[in-house]
Amino acid sequence: MVVSQPKSDLNQSSLTFLYLIAGLVSFSENNWQYPFPSTLSRARGLLYGAAIEKGDWKFQSLSEFIQIVQTPIKEWWPFEDLPEGADPDIPLVDSQLQVCNYLEELLLDMDELLGSQLFDAKELKLVLDNRKIREALQQAQRQPELEEAYVALRYFLIKHPWINVSDGVSIPRDAIQLMGNVSDYYEKPSVNMLHDGRIWLCPRCNGILIWAKDSPHCATLGLCDRLVKFEDAESIMGEIKTLKMTFRKRVQLPGLPEVQMFEEMSKISGVEVRLWPEADRYDLSVEKKGVFHWALDVKDYASEFTLSNLFRRHSSPVVKGAEFFYVVPDHREKISPGYIARLRRLSPDTPIRLMSDLLEKAK
């Protein structure tokens, strides 16, 4: 998955939005308990100021404010322009007080802004965790001899959303070069990962399930739960460490279709496949000599609107000697029939292919 670079020239609307989503993510991480994150207080102040300028201000309690962000942003945003990256039709927080996944993705894409002390770092542990994989990527970009180590590290994290310390941890030597401490990536399972005294695994991604009121869910709502039945989950025992939630959401789950395509393409006779070439400039290089050479970037987004916005903000990479495509996993079409057609209408000039179509074409 290519990591996007944010624009630094944010207008007031987009800056307020960034404070708001940072505050909501931080507040939700603390189970919506006091004290307020400073970013949320700042966002509320900016929103109230903009509403006053419009002559549409009234005092809002915290509960009223949370109710507002549970409605589509186009219905209440006080600035003239909607913030960049916002989906106007999707609430920021759902009825179960879950922050929308695309907001976490957007926030993580903009983590360089921590360098300007925009946020209190303590509020945004998930962003700081994310920087570890980015630092590994930057090392590989500066030192091409570390590209194989970066691939080994990323592949290990995707294939190992948990490790059993009591069995010994066999981490590839290449991966260790960039990993540093295992504790930077893995931690003890939280209390809500235990059910009936055991740890249970998602049948799709193999990550540890999280339990709330005797009901399981996976790291990202609306993905694994739409594709598999959690009653088929198997349990594990031992001295288990789980991949930190940031890496599960940002590396492991998005990386599954990338690795799936790599493994499926590798089975096709005469096809040479490489993962994350040129220090992750794109996801896969797929070549059948004398027939085709593709550069592929897999995009696994729940919202085609959000993905089309990403396409609008960032031009497609130009890869010498290769034909470039963005690839959408088939499960997006399964979860939301018509997804690929809608995405193509939103981004008519973007080269988009369904994963199964390219796999068939490569045979």
Report what the structure shows.
With 363 residues, the protein is an alpha+beta fold. Helices cover 42% and strands 14% of the residues. It has helices at 12-29, 38-53, 62-69, 101-109, 125-142, 147-159, 173-179, 224-227, 245-266, 277-280, 304-313, 330-335, 339-346, 355-362; strands at 162-164, 186-187, 194-195, 198-201, 210-212, 215-217, 234-236, 240-243, 271-275, 284-288, 292-298, 323-328, 352-354. The chain has a five-stranded mixed sheet. Strand 3 (194-195) and strand 4 (198-201) form a beta hairpin. The longest helix has 22 residues, at 245-266. It is globular. The model is unreliable at 1-8 and 111-117 (pLDDT under 50).
User: Kindly, what is the distance between the CA atoms of the first and last residues, rounded to a whole number of angstroms?
Assistant: 24 Å
Placed side by side, the strands forming the largest sheet appear as 9-10-11-12-13
Coarse structural class: alpha+beta
Question: In total, how many beta strands?
Answer: 13
Q: Which regions contain 5 or more consecutive residues with pLDDT less than 50? A: 1-8, 111-117
Average pLDDT over all residues: 86
Shape: globular
- The helical percent reads 40-55%
State which percent range the strand residues make up.
Answer: 5-15%
Radius of gyration equals 21 Å
Count, helices: 14
**What does the largest sheet look like?**
5 strands, mixed
Order of helices and strands: HHHHHHEHEEEEEHEEHEHEEHEHHEH
